[in-house]
Amino acid sequence: MDKLSMIFLGAPGAGKGTQATKICEKYNLPHISTGDILRANIKAGTPLGLQAKAIIDKGQLVSDEIVIGLIKDRLQEDDCKNGYLLDGFPRTIEQAKALDSFEKIKMAINIAVNEDEVVDRIAGRRMCVCGESYHISTYSSDTCAKCGQKLYQREDDKPQTVKSRLEVYNKQTAPLIEYYSNKGILYTVDGSQDIKDVYNSIVKVIDDNN
Ligand code: AP5
Ligand code: MG
Questions:
Q1: 125, 158, 168: which to mutate for ligand 1, most atoms within 8 A of CB?
Q2: Tell me: the pLDDT tens digits for 7-26?
Q3: CA gap 169, 92 in Å, rounded
Q4: Which residue, among 131, 180, 124, 112, has the nearest Cα to 157 in the 3D structure?
Q5: What does the alpha-carbon distance between residue 24 and residue 39 come to, in Å, rounded to a whole number?
Q6: Is 16 a catalytic residue?
Q7: What pTM was computed for the model?
Q8: Residue 39 bears catalytic tag
Q9: Ligand 1 pocket member 121 (CB < 6 A)
Q10: Mutate which of 7, 9, 16, 168 to test ligand 1's pocket (most atoms within 8 Å of Cβ)?
């Protein structure tokens, strides 16, 4: 078995974060989310966080240079030596090319969900600072089931910001589907199924191709 280096592709709200948590637990891999790293920087008030906040709140992308630097450093850490799961990176062709220059990616798994469904999922999402996310239709408490902290709504989950995130996704990130398909490492799962079935579909893809 070689290094399990994987990417999750998918629109905002497709379920990348939800599935990444579970998949990383099963395969004992680090879950590397550029969105989570950027939000942690915003919370800590770092220079990067201050710079990123205005961009994220508008639903735009942080510069390629910044996120490529973040990922390059992160992938050199010890816990990545047997593999990792990238969630939210790469998001532009430029980022994908940079990643190819320093890593060999084994699988790109696209979680496919139609646009109406993702809008609904984002509108009802509630987050915990520990990384868990919930949906108001299936979870009625306002505290996290894992750690008990209070749930909040992400600043960029407001309807007008979601609209620009989807536009950015269609223009800049969706072309990655073809990029990885051309490399012969793209696997698509039906993300409109319930959380457990999406998980089972992803596990099957990984086990069949590892
Ligand atoms: P990021 O945090 O990556 O946000 P995103 O890509 O918009 O994705 P989301 O986190 O919104 O969705 P998700 O697919 O993780 O869905 P989730 O599992 O939570 O990025 C945020 C921002 O940071 C970007 O806009 C950009 O500005 C910046 N950024 C990040 N990476 C960057 C990069 N590489 N380059 C430049 N800028 C970057 O699920 C959503 C909801 O649906 C939840 O409520 C969940 O409970 C529910 N749900 C999940 N699965 C199901 C299911 N199967 N059925 C029913 N409900 C479900
Ligand atoms: Mg996410």
A1: 125
A2: 999 999 999 999 999 999 99
A3: 9
A4: 124
A5: 20
A6: yes
A7: 0.96
A8: no
A9: yes
A10: 16
The residue written with tokens 């596990």 in the block is 203
pLDDT band at 2 (very low <50, low <70, confident <90, very high): confident
Instruction: Find out whether 41 and 49 touch, Cβ atoms under 8 Å.
Output: yes
CA-closest candidate to residue 84, choices 6, 22, 187, 17? 6
* Ligand 1 atom with the shortest distance to the CA of 95: 34
The 3-class SS string of the chain reads CCCEEEEEECCCCCCHHHHHHHHHHHHCCCEEEHHHHHHHHHHHCCHHHHHHHHHHHCCCCCCHHHHHHHHHHHHCCHHHCCEEEEECCCCCHHHHHHHHHHCCCCEEEEEECCHHHHHHHHHCEEECCCCCEEECCCCCCCECCCCCCECECCHHHCHHHHHHHHHHHHHHHCHHHHHHHHCCCEEEEECCCCHHHHHHHHHHHHHHHC
Round to whole Å and give the CA distance between 42 and 64. 18
Task: Quick: pLDDT tens for 118-143.
Answer: 999 999 999 998 888 999 999 999 99
Q: Which amino acid is at 102?
A: F
Cα 107 to Cα 113: distance, rounded to the nearest angstrom: 19
User: Could you tell me the distance, in angstroms and rounded to a whole number, from the CA of residue 16 to the centre of ligand 1?
Assistant: 6
Task: Say if CB 30 and CB 85 are below 8 A apart.
Answer: yes
